[in-house]
Design a protein that fits this description.
The chain has a single domain, classed as STM4215-like. The protein is 18% helix and 41% strand. It has two helices and five strands, in the order αββαβββ. It has a five-stranded antiparallel β-sheet with strand order 1-2-5-4-3, with helices on one face. The radius of gyration is 17 Å and the shape is elongated.
């Protein structure tokens, strides 16, 4: 399994343990999803990923740094309270220092550096969107 797939699976797996998570209302990257009018949904994706050699000598360690972005879409016209509550839930769920096991990566796996919200704003006439960006890193032994 590639490091990128392991990272994605670890972060998506953590998202799926979010209280009140509903996989039917999550628009996974690359998977078909049809928005249901008036039904809140999440749209997770890795929006930035880099890797650098972080060691010297014989065994090289590759450090992967990235941003996992989770967009929360809620119906427009009802204020921002519901979407902001969901952003709070996401911030609490992806805490700085947390780590998630991932195949093929060095312990502790994928580690959260920080998480930060972006204010809820109208996306269009039907949806308000709020975003949480989770900065993370993971180490891999280069073979």
């Amino acid at each position: 399994m590639s490091a990128m797939v392991s990272i994605r699976d670890a972060l998506n797996g953590r998202l799926q343990t979010l209280p009140a998570f509903d996989a039917a209302n999550c628009a996974w990257p690359g998977a078909p999803y049809v928005e249901k009018p008036g039904t809140p949904h999440l749209r997770p994706q890795i929006v930035g990923l880099t890797r650098v050699v972080s060691s010297l000598g014989g065994s090289k360690i590759l450090r992967w740094n990235g941003i996992f972005q989770i967009a929360a879409h809620y119906p427009a016209g009802k204020g921002t309270d519901a979407v902001e509550k969901r952003l709070d839930d996401l911030l609490e769920h992806f805490k700085s220092g947390d780590a998630y096991a991932a195949a093929g990566l060095l312990d502790p796996g994928v580690r959260v550096l920080s998480s930060a919200p972006q204010p809820a704003v109208p996306q269009d006439a039907q949806w308000i969107q709020g975003i949480v960006r989770v900065s993370f890193f993971a180490d891999q032994l280069q073979t």
